[in-house]
Fold these 3 entries.
Entry 1:
Amino acid sequence: MLSQIATQDACLSCGACCAHFRVSFYWAEGEMIPNEMLEVLTPVYSCMKGTNQAQSRCIALEGKIGEFASCQIYEQRSSSCKEVQVADSQCHKARTAHGLIPLIEIDPAVPSNDDGYDQVV
């Protein structure tokens, strides 16, 4: 299977998670989010408008999925948004649903033969 190495800014060209999952959270988290972007689910839970439907797309998502994406309320986003991390299983599921190549996390190799030598910068 093809894959792409994850980078810190991979989300800026993706947005797949914002157009795949229902973004629901405890009502109090919505206090910092504009009311016109919220949908009440129950007396205890709310969600972002646009995410509680079959063809989900968060109202706060701007841009085109897979090319350029940004969140209008990034600093105020809910904990459910913060839980999805680049290259995790949720990211993989959302990217696959949108026909995007999955991201993989690669740990940098630790040199094994540099003991006792100064690092050249």
Note: The CA atoms of residues 62 and 96 lie 20 Å apart.
Entry 2:
Amino acid sequence: MNSPKKSESPISVQAPSTALDHGQSDEDLARADLYGLLSELFGSPPSDHFFNRLAASPLVAADEPQAPLVEAWQSLVLKASSLQPSVIRAEFDALFVAVGKPEVMANASYYLSGALNQQPLVDIREALDRLGIERDPEATETEDHFAAVCEVMRFLVAGEVDERAQPGNLLLLQRDFFSNHLAPWVFDFLEMTQTHRSADFYQDASIFARCFLEVERQAFDIYASNQAGSGH
């Protein structure tokens, strides 16, 4: 499963360094790409270039196992190939953009505290400060936006962290950030997006995001269980 490269749309956070060599596996690099894909899809209306690359992404071979994540990916690509980028941008605006309150909020503070700019945002900012990750000064969204949090996960999986803040176990860092700043609210956000009356493409995008993040959550739970069993 290959994801399209990110376009040059603004993001909410920026890495403190270029990627460091932590011996990332092909699986880790694929995970980083998928976090980047989610950040792009939910961070801004897809550009023509990005969207056309997504629509042209290869489908999984018929003889490969049809796991939920694979099926969700194929549905997303097929939906992208059936629509025009302008239609997707209009849907993005209908769901996530408004002068007042958007139809669907994409911020951790809203789901965990009931309003924007609450304690969850403070907690994420403190975590980013410890990691040496800074907010893009040109960003219009706060650091607890789903796209920004996915971008942080992309940095962590790809090894783009400040060496001074880097712990001995990069996987532990990923698990802690995911567990503290994504898992507690993200499935509520995706459910709200998926079931919204205006969602078509973003219904498929939300299903794909949920399938991927469920795999991530299960993997982190197994990792935590193994660490507890080994006495670490």
Note: The mean pLDDT is 87.
Entry 3:
Amino acid sequence: MRKSHPVRRAVLAGAATVSGIVLLLSLKPASDPGAAQAAGGQVPPAAAGQAPQGGVNGAVTGDAAQTQYGAVQVRLTMANGKITQAEAVQAPKGGRSDQITASSVPRLNQAAVAAQSADIDAVSGATYTSAGYKKSLQSALDKARAAGGAAQGSGGAQTVTGDIAQTQYGPVQVRITVAGGKITQAEAVQAPKGGRSDQITSSSVPRLNQAAVAAGSADIDAVSGATYTSAGYKKSLQSALDKAPAGGGSSQAAGSGGGQAAQPQTQTLTGSVAQTQYGPVQVRVTVTGGKITKAEAVQAPKGGRSDQITSSSVPRLNQAAVAAGNAQIDSVSGATYTSAGYKQSLQSALDQAGG
């Protein structure tokens, strides 16, 4: 067999080496597998849509919503900003209402916890109760949102809904947005309607909204020709402001003393209206450093015998609330209904304070 020439073997070896290099280069991936995975990978759904942690903790009671068959009022138990329990502390009762309430309220409670919002379906056969429940539930969520914003101290906008103010021509209820301790928006979520009231509401409410933002308080002038609507608006607006945590209160106290210890924060809180057999009862408390320093009834039964009962029982109930520091106070003899309403509204006010 002929032997290959040494020079020829060298040339063939060099050609083979070059071909191998070219082949390796042609087989290199178009992109780095790790980079492709990073570019094409998706954030796990739990991380992308997870609700932010933190938020209000404790009980929050919504405003009482009046329905054709009675009042509905919802209390929520919150943990880290989530609803863990919902209950109706008021619901229509008596006659057929007992059966409807017993079957519908538990389902509404479950729906509120499941939805984590007031966007829940009405229970068939309980249209009015469902509507009242959702309205009070939304009110409780508004209060929880406001409380959560105060706890975070972020200075972000908070939405607060005032109590319903009953007027001769219909209810008025105001919702405000507060940012940095100032009213940035005001709106009437309820106002008198029907007949002449439609015209009065359409002309007066926008002016009242503007006045509330401009004044930053409930100290606004009544609109001419809309005396009752103006009075109801101002009352509900004051209730909303009472519920809104004081903006910058703690930082001002800390900064004003040149290094001195911050002063205890004072809050004025108005409880929900408690309906009694002889009329509504509503309590406003002043809380300083977590303690009740003042209690007063801004509404109480009046007229006839009620005037005497109110004048003798309410001052004693006010004193008892301050002394006890909670709603676990004794009823005043001879004023059973007033005492019960007082305690219910007082508890509602304390719920807003986180107590």
Note: The chain has ten helices and twelve strands.
